[in-house]
Amino acid sequence: MSALVPSLGLDRVDRVKISVLILVALLTIGFSLFLNKPGHLIGDESVYHVMTRSFAQAGSLELLNGYHEFPSKELVFPVSHPIDGRLLSQYPYLYPVLASPFYLAMGYSGLFVFNTLALLGAVWLCFATAQVLFRDRSLSLNACLILVFATYAWEYSQAAWPHAVSMLFVCGAAYFAARAVTDRETGRSALLALMSGVIAGFGVGVRIDVILVAPALVLPFLLSNTVSLKNAIAAILGMAPGLAVLAATNYAKFGILSPFSYGPKPSGSAVDPWSYLPVALAGVAIVAAIRVWQQPGVRDFVRTRWRLCAAGACLAIVLMLLHPAIWTLVARSAHGAYQLLVDLRVRDLGILEGALSRGPGGSMIYMGALKKSLLQSCPYLVTLVLPLLIVVTGGRDARRLGLLFLVPASFWAVFSYFAWHGGHSLNLRYFVPTLPFVAILTAYGWREVMARTVAPALGLRLGLLLSVLVVAGSTLPVHIQMRPISELEFILLTIPLCLACLLLALLLAQRLTSGRLARLAGTCAIAGLVLSFAWAGTVALTYDFPRALIKRSVTHRMSAEMASTISANSILFVEYATPFSGVYETDGIRLAQVTWDDFAGFRPLVDFHLGAGRPVYVLVGEESWDKARRGGLLDGLELVEISNMLGNPLMQLVLKPAPGRAGAPQRLGSKPNLNDSASRVGP
Q1: Which residues, other chains included, contact 29 with Cβ-Cβ below 8 Å and sequence gap of 6+?
Q2: How many DSSP H helices and E strands does the chain contain?
């Protein structure tokens, strides 16, 4: 395989790694173009679909799904706002703008290709950032391999929501920040810091949480021994243009002049800057404490009077925790962090969320499968304790490692405080932008373990042997996909935590002991790391992604069947819109969900489109038909069965013939009588 890459002074191992990454890139593009099923996983993707289609075809920030013709709640998405006859998405503008060329070329599939290219760009930036910081090609390539094979990032390249693109912007901003940190030429360093801010500012237009990269762009210059206010200010000023454009679009959409707004009444996770104040204040306090600790006089004082300092620190912590506000902040953040980073099973069973059920052990179940915390998805992340110790003790590379830690720390702190887990996904999608950084830190930890181990080959062989067994066992459907939830809770949620605890113990044993025990711990730690990499990649590829792919395949097929059955320039009423969102690709088809307002807007919308000469179709269950009949919503209408889908008849609604004309009204029963002379077939 190394023959794919010319020598260029590379050793054989690095050439193999590069060849593997090139092969993965080609296979990923090929999968996205030819094998992926571009169906809709959740309603958010339907919104991004319509956002992109509206901007690509009409240059509009509105959701042009028929609401502008006749406003009705049944045309309103849960994450949108009807304002003055316009339907506007709560989400920022930049993703549909950037995805528009791909949409014009390939339709909805173009969003998947766009995300694929974004992932590949993030992988390249992962390599480039690691190279800038550590000048170690082997470490940089290892980070890329970990990102691709041992995280769930790849799944989000085969999707239509913008997590892969937000990861690209976060990586781009951090790359220029890393260059600014390592560049000794003052003017050029400030320009690089400015560029990092520009990328972050516009990245907020993709997803608002991209702003969480800001601490990594500013704090390295404020916490260094030679404080560079110039660079910190440059990074902050660089964010201004992108935030200003986003604020302007929010004003055009909602009349709110703020970049951090989801509209007047946001659904889902509200964007209210004041709600983040406790986390921000805690962050400022931590930064201030670090800055004080960095003073040489403080360190000398602590070293000479460490007992007094320890007692004083404990007393200060106790006194602070006695304050109700501080205790609430700490307790809430700690509980949220344990949920998202360690084990989601501790989440309150009383919290009700759409599409969610709970397993017998408290597990969270979406799409009939188990959702996992970050450590349950990637048990090797305990390796981050090694670079963290370097940062805390101020060792070699402390400042550069600190920059890498700032990105995941910001995301983890904010989302833990709110305990936001990302809803309908089998892993933590909000943490996707952090995965390149934990991959680099893990690669650094891997290098540290290997450097301290006398015989790494033995550990590698042992790890590979165990990994083969894991991969072989996990890829058999009877062993993973077909097991009951009660068994999978132990396999997918408990085992990775046990693996992480064992790996952490081995890493600490290697670091804190010496001689034969340290060598044995190091060998076992290498084996455990390899096994953890294999575990993470196998679960992501054989459990998480197949579930999403199956659901996308189903919704893609349902939409295609519906689009081929009904006419263009029509309206379709359904009980749940997401599975049929692919019909937006057919010109003029409008999709209305009757359950949004319990049929309140059904008849006015039907009458409007019938009056405009457009076909009207309805696909609902018997209970909904009965509700419509009892409410008089079908009076004066004739029902014609077009086909049968999902066990329910797809009906076309037409006006009854005028009195004295041929034909009789179709009576609504459990199913229409297709032999009745009153029935008409076809749109």
Answers
A1: 113, 116, 117, 120
A2: 24, 10
